[in-house]
Amino acid sequence: MLTHAAGVTTLTWTPPVNTGSNDINYDTLASLSADDFQAGRICVESDGIDTVSTDSTAPGVGQTIFFLVRAGNACGDGSAGLGEAFSERLAASCP
């Protein structure tokens, strides 16, 4: 779910059903391009432990901000999902 009020965007999500681990964390990335979560990405949150992220980045006139939430655990980052033509979406690591 995405809400926006007073210049702050709040994202909330449901955790994966079967994580294989109790130590799950989340990276929240933002980008001005739905297809570029590498070079054009902004790390909104890195290794968050709850299912909420907030962002106060203001897009320019006529721009859209796209968000991606990626789960991970001690074994590393999970998948960033599928992009166009069902190919693996690439997303940079967050610090």
Question: How would you describe this protein?
Answer:
The structure is a single chain. The model has no long low-confidence stretch (mean pLDDT 87). This protein has strands at 2-5, 8-12, 25-31, 41-48, 52-55, 66-73, 76-77. A hairpin with a 2-residue loop joins strand 6 (66-73) and strand 7. A four-stranded antiparallel sheet has the order 4-3-6-7, with no helix packed on it. A three-stranded antiparallel sheet has the order 1-2-5, with no helix packed on it. It is built from no helices and seven strands. With 95 residues, it is mainly β. The protein has a domain at 2-15 and 24-74.
Set down the secondary structure blueprint.
Layout: E1 2-5, E2 8-12, E3 25-31, E4 41-48, E5 52-55, E6 66-73, E7 76-77
Antiparallel strand pairs: 1-2, 2-5, 3-4, 3-6, 6-7
Helix and strand pattern = EEEEEEE
As a percent range, the share of helical residues equals: under 10%
Rg = 13 Å
How many strands, which pairing sense, and closed or not: the largest β-sheet?
4 strands, antiparallel
Q: How much of the sequence is in beta strands?
A: 35-45%
What attributes characterize this protein structure?
single chain; 95 residues; mainly beta; four-stranded antiparallel β-sheet; three-stranded antiparallel β-sheet; 7 strands
Explain briefly what this protein structure is.
With 95 residues, the chain is mainly beta.
